[in-house]
Amino acid sequence: MGGRLREIASKGQLRLAYLRWAVVTVPFVLLLGLASARLAPVGSANPWFLRLAKPGYLPPEWVFPVALAIVFALMGLALAMVINARGSRARRSALLLFAAQMVPGLAWPPVFFGMHQVTAALALVVAAAVLGLLAVILFGRVRMGAALLLLPYLGWLGFAGALLYEIDRRNPDAASLVLARPADQMQIQ
Fold it and tell me: Which of these, 167, 54, 156, 79, lies nearest to 120 by C-alpha position?
């Protein structure tokens, strides 16, 4: 070997490297989601949203931050797995696709709650789902466990898409609802 020894990392060393990445990626993905949701008042804090006709299967408001925190934490763990898979040829493509699929998901709260664009928000969910599915496939080529950790995200997008479709159907004039105060508008903080 020309004087160079090649060492194989032990399972413990690989686990520690993964955990070091997870300590960064999980909070990072969670903070991205939180920052996106802070661009406009959401849920009952948004008078425009309160005026919309909603389907009966809309869960209680507390479900959304809990479910999204779980989904984003799982996404952060999946991201750490792929980042830590240094020997994989599919790693770079998987990471680029992961970043791409985050864009429509993070754009959703300001488009829906801030700009009151239900149809555009639905299109963002569809785009996130398509890119998310492709990310699952590429993550599976790198680490099957990482792909499995992204499946709840796809499930959430399916539920969000069904919910948005129904809100869009029930509120064809949603974008033109008269706003009572300027505070109802999107606020960039």
Answer: 167
What burial class does residue 36 get, using C-beta atoms within 10 Å of its C-beta: 0-12 exposed, 13-18 middle, 19+ buried?
Answer: middle
Q: What is the mean pLDDT of residues 28-48?
A: 93
The tens digit of pLDDT for each residue in 136-154 reads 999 999 999 999 999 999 9
The structure tokens listed for 76 are 């952060």
Reference 115, options 189, 184, 163; nearest CA is 184
CB 170 within 8 A of CB 119: no
pTM, full prediction = 0.84
Place of tokens 């999980």: 26
- Per-residue pLDDT tens for 57-94? 999 999 999 999 999 999 999 999 999 998 899 999 99
Please provide the CATH number assigned to the domain covering 13-52+61-174.
1.20.1260
